[in-house]
Amino acid sequence: MTDHDHFRRYGHIFVDWLADYFEHIEQYPVKSRSLPGDLLSQLPLSAPEGGESMDEIFNDFRALIMPGISHWQHPSWFAYFPANNSPASVLAEMLTSGLGSQCMSWQTSPAATELEERVMDWLRQMIGLPPEFTGVIQDTASTASLCALLSAREQVSGYSANQQGMYEPPLMVYTSTEAHSSIEKGVKIAGFGKENLRLIQTREDFSMCPESLSQAIAKDLENGRKPACVVATLGTTSSMAMDPVEAIANICKQFNVWLHVDAAFAGTAAIDPDHRWFMKGTGHCDSFVFNPHKWMLTNFDCSAYFVRKPDVLLRTLGMQPEYLKTAADTEVKNYRDWGIQLGRRFRALKLWFVIRSYGIAGIRDLVNRHIAMARDFASWLEADASFELMAPQQLSLVCFRFNPGALNDKDLNHINQQLMERINATGTVFLTHTILRGRFTLRLSIGQRTTSARHVQQAWQLIKKASLEITA
What we know:
The chain is an alpha/beta fold.
């Protein structure tokens, strides 16, 4: 059998297996039941000297690997935020892997660059960003936010930080106490220093307080520090809080500070104009990111990063070694200069497949179904005296806790942690938690492509049953 015949045979076997997996995924426990070291104890300590058959490898995949997989595509995946895929996206990813293109510049694969340019402009239009924004695909929102922080650093330092290193006075970054941990990580990587990150207090709904932001910037200026960047969040991980971007943008304009907006999960909802209210003011930001790999049916990884001034990004990250120069450089985009990585995957292909396969209407309908399910779930909680909402229900996330009454927050924290562990141990539903103002809070995040109203109802019944067992 030739290599091509071998590939064709097992390619069909693997596609058939994946199709069965999609069809019967509910038969798997949504969260892996593996214990630490389970897989390691079954793997040889050294690699095989000779090659093994694909039959043996695939058998081990099913016997050893699958028990240690948590099934993100399961319809009862209500943990974290989703990492969706779809048949169209998986098929495109298969083509991408087969082509094996390294898409660092236009010359290395012209179609990859030009498709990315066009698809990113489709996305810009779909979420309502104005035409002065230009998009590029990053791997994750963490990387995109790091690009924003680096761009802000260079702009405020007159592009001296890249040349001379960080300097006095300290450059300051501002974000809310509810912002994603990747912002703090980016601040450290970019050389600002954790001590120069200001965590701004939030309002009752967990969104950033503009007055507190303005005061923090003014105080730093008085103390000889130099404000560089504000990171606003649309859809915080803990509670889906929406920072008031318009008010924050006015403050950033007043103090001449870069504004980056992180809408990693929520950004997909802006595809429906009826849910675009939270985008108010984003037309005035300097950079914006959301992740199609979360809610937009595009498998991980694919993060859409938009910038108002591409020249700042290019001046910050661009490199022009002789061996990468081409005759076409003045006429095309070379996306190697638009991000951290030099080498780049052909991520635009799966995005193109998804948008064309589902259409804007199909993606919009998916978002609307999930939001409607979240509203239903929130209404069931509000109708039950033993439960309480811990944050306003926004889009498709519901934050809640079990509260049978007559207990303090410390005891309630313990009971709700027990409740979550009991629910997850069933393998039927997977929930995760957060802490909101010191209170252990359960999160039910609805965003998986295969989730239906039946699965949300099943989760509610399981939560009710587990809460009764705990109180008993």
